[in-house]
Amino acid sequence: MSYERPSVKRLHAYTPGEQPQGGRIIKLNTNENPYPPAPEVLAELGNIDPHALRRYPSPMADEFRRVAARLHGVNPENIIATNGGDELLRLALTCFVEPGEAIGVTRPSYSLYPVLAAIHGASVFEVPRPDDWSLPGNFAAELNRQKVPLGLVVNPHAPSGRLSSVDELAAIANEFKGVLLIDEAYVDFVDPSLNHSTLPLLNQFDNLLILRTLSKGYSLAGLRFGYGIGHADLIAGLHKVRDSYNQDVISQALAVASLTAQQYARQSWQKVRDERARLAAALSQRGMSAPDSEANFLLVDVPGAGQAEVLYQALKQQGILVRWFDQPRLRDKLRISVGSDAENDALLQGVDQFLQAL
Ligand SMILES: Cc1ncc(COP(=O)(O)O)c(C=O)c1O
CATH number, domain at 253? Predict the structure, then answer.
């Protein structure tokens, strides 16, 4: 006997990447940062006042919002703190989409979007990305035609790592009649010489919501802390639909410490970029090329029919986890997170063993 309502019964729950706990696994499957969080974060953890835990947390994460606002050159009313970027996605659906309506996404995209839509009773309208994974030129027009109230664009794109320009995003925000959520989960890894920032667009567009997370750039996937940046009216709507205390005392304190330690974070981003370039070149020498990535992962082509899945399994047997997607256009590829230099060396050795055995 099932007590679930029919739409929940039909639901295919989100499948997270494998998360083995402990052991000597090399985890290059869920785009975590290979470096530890800033030392200031652990120091702050030791300083948590027990009396602060006795009380409820700041409902709106006031100090975090002040620090984030200063960092991004906006006001605290332009920021909402959330339980991971994932909560912001859910709040955006709750706030901007009536059940029965649709969200608009590019395909392929973050596989949580359709799951959140299904939970909300919304459908998904997908516009395919061209072969080079760039943004579909007709995205805004198609979404308007379908009267979609919320569009989501991951930039840099997951799973390809391709970065779309600020001008392209501005054109979409300008043409699109709904709320445009730019999911910038991986934006910290973008080469700074590209001068890529969508923040100035917030002065131009009141329908723009930017997702950020501490999971990747700040090495805090275990903390569950993300935030949204947008026009004060959009943010006020999102606050209406969140849990009253959606971030606990410890998370808020650690998130403040983490965002404040900018120099440390920036160094880790540079190390990831350096390793990304080295890994891409080394894989390409082995016949496995990847499109240019501005994220902390590479979408690697594995030549030979069915060989991507075989390599995924072979690496897994060696204790190296990468991601293989059983999806159209992705079955001949592996998405590999950029690890530390030692992890990347181990991956390359694993690939060499696989190639030698062919
Ligand atoms: C594209 C994209 N958006 C958002 C997120 C949300 O991350 P988190 O909830 O850990 O902040 C992820 C996590 O993998 C992601 O890949």
Answer: 3.40.640.10
Q: Per-residue confidence at 249, pLDDT binned at 50, 70, 90?
A: very high
Whole-model pTM: value is: 0.97
SS3 73: coil
Listed residues 260, 291, 315: the one ending a domain: 260
Phi, psi of 334 (to 5 degrees): -125, 140
Same domain, yes or no, for 207 and 313?
A: no
Q: Is the peptide bond before 34 cis (omega within 30 degrees of 0)?
A: no
For residue 107, report the distance from its CA to the centre of ligand 1, in Å.
16
Distance CA 334, CA 320 (A): 12
The domain in which residue 32 lies consists of 13-36+263-357
Same domain, 274 and 215: no
Nearest-atom index, ligand 1, CA of 213: 11
What atom in ligand 1 is closest to the CA of residue 85?
Answer: 11
Among 213, 229, 246, 251, name the best residue to mutate to test ligand 1's pocket (greatest count of ligand atoms within 8 A of Cβ).
213
Q: What is the mean pLDDT of residues 17-34?
A: 86
pLDDT in tens, 171-180: 999 999 999 9
Q: Which of 210, 240, 260 is the last residue of a domain?
A: 260
- Residue 285 inside a domain? The answer is yes
Q: What secondary structure does DSSP assign to 1-63, as a single string? A: ---S-HHHHT-----PPP---SSS-EE-SS---SSPPPHHHHHHHHT--HHHHHSPPPTT-HH
Size of the chain, expressed as the number of residues it contains: 358
